[in-house]
Specification:
heterodimer, A: 287 residues, alpha/beta, four-stranded antiparallel beta sheet, 10 strands, 37% helix, globular, B: 329 residues, mainly alpha, 14 helices
């Protein structure tokens, strides 16, 4: 897919969104409370994270619609990753991190989830491809299932095929599913990691600079993949690459010094931002 | 500035300022460059046109290199010497009887160390059953679940424990197991060896787990896998080859221990009759034979030493072979 086609698709989508701007999004990804339509896949209220009393992010209030791609941009150290990692409680690993405020996933408060169950619904793709080095390609894809005790061979085979096709990796690896995952190239490894994430069927996928360690061609493939995944998943992507944000996202959030400066449709952010700070960052005056 | 550039600047007035600054920078660069060149010239002259200085530097260099080489040689010599001497003195006394026969009473020639070989294997097995799980679990605790004062304490105590002489560990096992049971036993010997293994295994496990990238733990947790499953299936598996090497080191170390067994398994001239009974051990037998006045026993002690080194070597080889296959599948 060429870049211009991309832009077109994104633009069309934004137009659609504008049309139904005030309507409640018709589709719903909520599973645990059937009949109830959740307007937002993710909603945070006054979310703050501090590390050892030092402020990581403060007062973030944001609402993200289901089945959209949201880009988070901002200079290094502005709290993009901190925000992203608070959405699947990854800060639990750091005893010095303290979180205040509220996070709702499909209108359910994050605190009502068991952490493990929450992470099954909110998947994550990391900056550097990190397949499990001791496992084969096959085992990597279904790692989330097998480690939780699912051993039905037929189901596993189906999952591997479905997820690898979904991640656009099937044709490249179908003849060597049993070879070690680390034998793949960096770009392939990252697509494998995405396949691994969608194998547990999360409604939301968080991506922390998923292409920053990859070459332009692999980046393009991942972007295509993100674009295709949008129909089924809510995706939040942290990126340093503003062109990337413009290419793949419907809405963009600009973070600066731990605060959410502006959050609106991507096209608006890049053509006519409301805040002066956003404009300065996008035009390269700082950051 | 050429006409074309002028035009360009008129078209893009914003860029003009930048252009000028970059121009300034360039000219500054050139100045710096010349200064550096001058500096370089003087430096080079001082280094290469001054033969005394150069000679002094060369001499220092060769002295330091020879010191390093000497240290390297001193490191290898004991090992080569031990291998050479044990083989030379022990190999001639190696025969089938050594591996199949019990020791003969004083005065009779022949006999073997079979009970000692079996006993050592049993003792090392018992020690491993106790020391390896405790060591690995302690290592996991310290790296994966640390943060409190207690884990710092565990780390510190492990370091101290690895420095305690093995004979003290033997006395400890004597006090804890032999005295209450009122007799020497294989259990007590295994317990002492196990305690000796703990610091090595803990330390190596800790170091190897630290090498596992944090992103792998996060990747697994992000899939909705619980903490203990992540530790077991991802962290431990990724670090397994390093941990196995550490276990081998620990086993090799305790297989040759004599001191902690003197008060615990005591030694015996017969086949092992039960784990709650005194049991023979190769190092103890070597010690007893070596301090005896009989030439025949001296020869057997050499043969025993050779066998001990050989057992450790084979153990290394087998474990490496098994784990290599496991990692590939």
């Amino acid at each position: 897919m060429s870049e211009s086609e991309y832009e077109n698709l994104v633009n069309v989508d934004i137009k659609d969104q504008q049309d139904q701007n005030d309507e409640v999004a018709a589709s719903s990804v909520i599973e645990e409370t059937p009949g109830k339509v959740s307007k937002y896949a993710i909603r945070t209220e006054d979310l703050s994270v501090t590390f050892n009393k030092r402020i990581g992010i403060s007062g973030i209030t944001i609402s993200i619609k289901p089945q959209t791609v949201t880009a988070i941009i901002g200079p290094s150290g502005c709290g993009k990753s901190t925000f992203l990692r608070s959405l699947n409680m990854m800060h639990d690993l750091n005893p010095k991190a303290e979180i205040s405020g509220e996070i709702y996933i499909n209108d359910v408060n994050i605190l009502e989830f068991n952490t493990v169950e929450l992470r099954k619904k909110v998947g994550m793709v990391f900056q550097k491809p990190n397949p499990f080095p001791t496992m084969s390609i096959y085992s990597n894809v279904v790692a989330g299932l097998t480690m939780n005790g699912i051993n039905d061979k037929k189901l596993l085979n189906e999952t591997v095929e479905r997820c690898l096709i979904h991640a656009g990796l099937w044709n490249e690896v179908k003849d060597r599913l049993k070879s070690p995952a680390v034998s793949l190239s960096g770009g392939q490894q990252q697509r494998l990691c995405i396949a691994r994430t969608i194998a547990v069927n999360p409604g939301i996928i968080l991506m922390d600079e998923p292409t920053s360690a990859l070459d332009p061609l692999s980046t393009l493939k991942i972007e295509e993949l993100i674009y295709n995944l949008k129909s089924e998943y809510t995706i939040i992507i942290v990126t340093h690459n503003m062109q990337q944000a413009a290419r793949i996202s419907e809405s963009t959030a600009f973070f600066y010094m731990g605060k959410l400066i502006e959050f609106s449709r991507t096209r608006r952010i890049f053509t006519n931002p409301h805040e002066k700070l956003t404009e300065e960052y996008i035009t390269g005056k700082f950051g | 500035m050429s006409e074309l550039e002028n035009k360009k600047n008129n078209l893009e007035p914003d860029l003009q300022n930048e252009k000028v600054t970059s121009h300034e920078e360039n000219s500054l660069d050139v100045n710096n460059h010349e200064e550096i060149k001058i500096l370089e010239k003087t430096e080079i002259r001082s280094i290469f046109k001054n033969p005394e200085n150069l000679r002094r530097r060369k001499v220092t260099n060769s002295i330091m290199i020879s010191l390093c080489v000497a240290a390297g040689i001193i490191t290898i010599i004991p090992l080569i010497y031990i291998f050479f001497y044990t083989t030379k003195s022990g190999l001639s006394s190696i025969n089938l009887d050594l591996f199949t026969q019990l020791p003969k009473p004083v005065g009779e020639t022949g006999g073997g160390l079979a009970n000692g070989i079996v006993g050592t294997l049993i003792l090392v097995g018992l020690g491993s059953l106790f020391g390896i799980p405790v060591g690995i679990l302690a290592g996991i605790y310290v790296t994966e679940y640390s943060g409190g004062v207690f884990s710092t304490l565990v780390k510190f105590v492990t370091d101290v424990l690895s420095g305690i002489p093995s004979i003290i560990i033997g006395i400890f096992a004597y006090g804890v197991i032999v005295l209450p049971l009122q007799h020497f036993s294989a259990y007590a010997g295994g317990f002492a060896l196990g305690i000796l293994m703990i610091p090595t295994v803990t330390r190596i496990t800790e170091e190897m787990l630290k090498l596992v990238p944090q992103t792998l733990r996060e990747a697994s947790l992000a899939l909705g896998v619980s903490r203990w499953k992540t530790t077991l299936n991802i962290v431990l598996r990724t670090a397994s080859s390093g941990i196995i090497t550490g276990i081998l080191l620990a086993i090799a170390r305790v297989a040759g221990e004599t001191a902690p067994l003197l008060f615990t398994s005591f030694g015996s001239s017969f086949w092992p009759s039960g784990l709650d009974q005194p049991i023979a051990a190769l190092p103890v037998q070597i010690f007893n034979y070596a301090i005896s006045p009989f030439d025949d026993w001296h020869r057997q002690a050499w043969a025993g030493a050779f066998v001990l080194i050989f057992i450790v070597f084979i153990l290394n080889f087998i474990v490496r072979f098994i784990t290599r296959n496991k990692l590939q599948s």
